[in-house]
Each structure stands twice: as structure tokens, then as C-alpha cells.
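Lecture 7, part 2: worked example. A protein chain together with pyridoxal-5'-phosphate.
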Amino acid sequence: MTPKIASFLDTQPATPCLVLDLDRVAENYAALRRALPAAKIYYAVKANPAAPILDLLAARGSCFDAASLPEIEMCLAAGAPASAISFGNTVKKPSAIAAAHKLGVPLYAFDSIEELEKIAAHAPGAKVYCRIAVNNEGAEWPLSKKFGTTLDRAKVLMLAAPALGLVPHGLSFHVGSQQTGTAAYETAIAEVAMLFTDLKAAGVELKMLNLGGGFPIRYLSDVPEADAFGTAIMDAMVEHFGNDLPEILIEPGRSMVGNAGVVASEVVLVCRRMEADARRWVYLDIGRYGGLAETEGEAIRYRITAGNGQTGPVVLAGPSCDGVDVIYEKTPYHLPLELKSGDRVLIHDTGAYVTTYASQNFNGFAPLQEYYV
Ligand SMILES: *Cc1c(COP(=O)(O)O)cnc(C)c1O
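Predicted complex, written out as C-alpha cells:
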């Protein structure tokens, strides 16, 4: 936890709340720039669209990956030019495409002929890039099945783009979020490089490769540093593209904001459920519906602290009356034996994918408060 967050928490804000240190975001942005100086950074807005974050990144010259018209409007409000925005969702409403086009957004993702035709109809002349489905092995929050197409299919689609009045600009992939290994990028780069070559031979010269997001942060276990990803990626780019490097884009979300935020919550109840189970059940005032959606399947395992003292095993659950609202049951968590109702529990590294996942008053619980310090 950063000193700024610690001193803000000393003021005892009502819980649940997220406190996020903007200096940390600035450091993360600088670290990514250093790790991959050849790449343009398109911050994945969905990770945390708070205005102070977008303002900070826009002021530093970051570009933005937006998934919807409201996200595009937030980036513009932060001072980003439309030319710095990519409409990266491969599933877009025609009205959203038309509005983005009118606002001057130049770049559109797709992964099906149907979407390509929509872009052609509502954003004539736009630059398009095709998302390739790649192996998400090593990712703790995979995105694999829902998006992307095969190399063969992408070739057909890119060749079809000019006749539709579009500019076939590049390719993209996403190796899965919280990707803990560099190999996923290396394999994906090798695959898409072949399609660049194929398309060039067929008369379509692509200009851009979008490597997506996925860069991990440290939750409970160490992960490779940004520099390790930067080196592995550039080595793979040079190996497969030689001197003919395309423009490189990255779309970090989690790695830009995740470690900048801490959620403060209050213990609502500590009790035993079954005599035979040594574990106490700890109910917090935040759970699956309060923003901790990535604890689904216990995929993302946050670091959780609650003061000092001897600890024992716990099951962690949220405050709602839904049986699914259990945060961690299989992952072994230990909290102080003296923990009681009213105590504060901190959930660390919650700057990404928390605030906007909070439900709107499920069981009457308001979404968590957000403070950017
Ligand atoms: C969610 C998303 C990202 C960000 O992914 P992280 O794993 O948070 O870095 C980037 N690009 C696209 C297209 C996304 O959907």
C-alpha cells in the first residue's frame, strides 16, 4: 500500500471503498513505455474508466482502447483526440459505429464478416483490424472463446475489406488477462507474422500489429516484470518480422491500474458454519456483486490483510443473500483469530476490474465509493 493510500485510509472513510493512488498509475505508464518503447500504448478503458485516470493518461499522450460509445466519450472528455482512440470491441451496435465515425475515431476492430459489413456501412473509409483467436494458456482470466477468428478466415476477411471501402490496417490478438507467461506473446506473434507475409503476397500490406493487453500484476505470486515481457516481445517481433516491423500497439488494462488501488471493507460477521470445519466464515461488506466479480471461480486471488496477530483459516464471503456470493472457499486464506464484526479488511491490488463491476443496489447495497488521491 502506498503512503498516500495509507494516510487517506487513516481518515476512516465509510466502506466499502476503493482508494487509488494516481502516482502509481503514472509510474505504471512510465514503466510500460520503458519496457516497450517501440509500442504505442492504448489504455484499455474498461479496466477502470475513472476520469482522474483518463485525464492523467491523456495528458501523458496515451492512446485509448474503447469498447463502447460511452467509453469513447469519456476519453474525449479527458482531452484525448479522436485520432488516439481505437474502437476495439469486435461486437458493436451500428448506431455506436456511426457515432464513433462522426466523432472522428479512425480505427475499428472486427472478427466476423457481419461486423466488417457493419463497419463498412456506418464508418465508410475506416481503418480496420482483424482479431485473431490465440491460445490463452497461462492466463488466469482467459478471454479465448468469445473473440477472434482463425488465420485462414482473417485472410479472407482482410482481402474483402478494400472492396467494402475499408482500409485493411492490421491484426490484433489478446493472450488472456493476467497472462503470467511471456511465451503466449511469442507464439501469437509467430502465428500472425505468417499472415502478414501471406497477405503481402496477395497484395494487401498491413501496417499495424496490436498485441492486446494481458500483462500481469503481482497478486499472491510473483509474475515476470514488464521488462521481461518487453524483451520477449521485441525479440519475437525481430525474429518474425526482421527489419520490416509494423507499427506496434499494446492495450494494457490491469497492468496500468491494478496495483494502484486498495479496497477497504468492514467485517459484517465472523462465525462457524459446521462444527467439523475449522474454518471461520468471514462476511465482508463487499463481495461478488460489490465489485469483486473476478473472484468468480476464484480466478483472481487478491492479497487480503486485516491487522496483526495469530491467524487461522477462513472462508470469505460477501454480504448479499445470494449463495454464489462466496469470494474464496477453495483458496486457503488466513486472517487473525481475533477478527470480529466491525474490523477493517483491506483487499489489495483492486484498481482494475472492480469499480465498474459493482452491481446497482443488489440487496440494497450501494456501489462502492471511489477516491483518487
Ligand atoms: C480487456 C481488454 C484489454 C485489457 O486487458 P488486460 O488484461 O487488462 O491488460 C485489452 N484489449 C482488449 C480488446 C480487451 O478486451
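Residues 290 and 365 are 8 Å apart (CA to CA). The pocket of pyridoxal-5'-phosphate is lined by residues 44, 46-47, 65, 88, 174, 177, 212-215, 251-255 (CB under 6 Å). Keep this in mind for problem set question 3.
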